[in-house]
Each structure stands twice: as C-alpha cells, then as structure tokens.
Amino acid sequence: MSLSSELWTANQDLAQACLKHPFVQGIGDGRLEHSKFAYYVGQDTFFLEAFARAYSIAAAKAPDWQGFTTFHNLAGGVLEELRLHESYASQWEVNLHSVEPGAATRRYTDFLLATAWGGDVGLTAAAMSPCMRLYAFLGESLASDGIPNHQYANWIRTYSSADFQPLAQQLESLVDNYATVTALVHSTYRYAMFCERDFFQAAWAES
Q1: What CATH topology corresponds to 3-205?
Q2: Which of 3, 52, 88, 133 suits a disulfide with 78, CB 3.0-4.6 Å?
C-alpha cells in the first residue's frame, strides 16, 4: 500500500465524520441554510488563498523539476477553484473583500503555511493532501445516486467531476514521492483532517 493510501485509510473515521456532518449532508440534499453556505464560501476563499500560497512555497522548495511543475500546476487548479467561489459569492451576495477569517479557518491556514515554510515538501504534501482527497471523496459520495437538481448541485458537480480526481491523485503522488513513513507525517495528516472537520463545524455553528 502506498503511503498516501495508508494515510487516507488510517483516517477513515474522520472522513466519515465529515461526510455525515450536517453541513455536508445539507449540501447533499439541498437543505442547507443559505447563510451557512454563504459563510462557508467566504471562509473557504480565505483558506484557498492560503492553500495556493502553500503550493507555491512547496514548489520553490521542491528538490527536482518534476516536483516543482506538479506543485505549480496544482496551484493553478486552486486558482480555478477560486474563480468558482467568485461566482458563488456573486450568487449568494458575499463580499469576499470583507471576509474576516474565523478561528477554525485561521487555525487551518496558519498550520498549512507554517508547515510549508518550516517543513520539507513531503511533509507539506502530507498536510495538504487531506483537503483534496476528502473533497473528492465527499463529491463522489454525494453524487453516488446522481447529481441532484438543487441550489448546491454545482458544488457536488465540481468535486465529483473527472477533472478534480486527478488533482487529488497528483498531490498524493507528491506524498508518495517525497514523504517518508514517520510519526510526524501521520500526525500532520491527521491534524489536517481534524481541521477539515472543524471547518465544516464552524460553518454550521458560527453563521
């Protein structure tokens, strides 16, 4: 089993907790309150900007050209995702320029950027991989019976699409190429999964 698969398998409890979270289930059935999704869009935009920066830091630190180009291409994928958020913001009347990060958002972004600046590229990939793999998992799970026709269908469509899965796989390939099996890599990956769960909880509770 590859290291990325080992890490994902070891954290299935948190993956299932995210899938079963009422925020995610509300996206799935279309019943999530508008205010909660609007709050999430603003917070996720702040998060994705930090995520793109972490990719860029890792690209600069990559020991070979293949790693540099892969991190760089993944950063480009985040820019595409941010454009999607701009359309959400317009639809839900969210002013992205006035968003203040909540505690859960700041905790996650501070962790990612500290890891990117202070750790090697393998550890950074391990910190970032849960986000991509989890969203691919959530998208596929929510679309398993077909993409519903409701206000959050585009969210499900994006993360269940054939375009998103390869991005998650590219990041996992960086984990496999550069990370080693250490307690720090395992704890870093799991901490990111806790951050993902807390991110959904904050959107559910704080809006």
Answers
A1: Heme Oxygenase; Chain A (1.20.910)
A2: 52
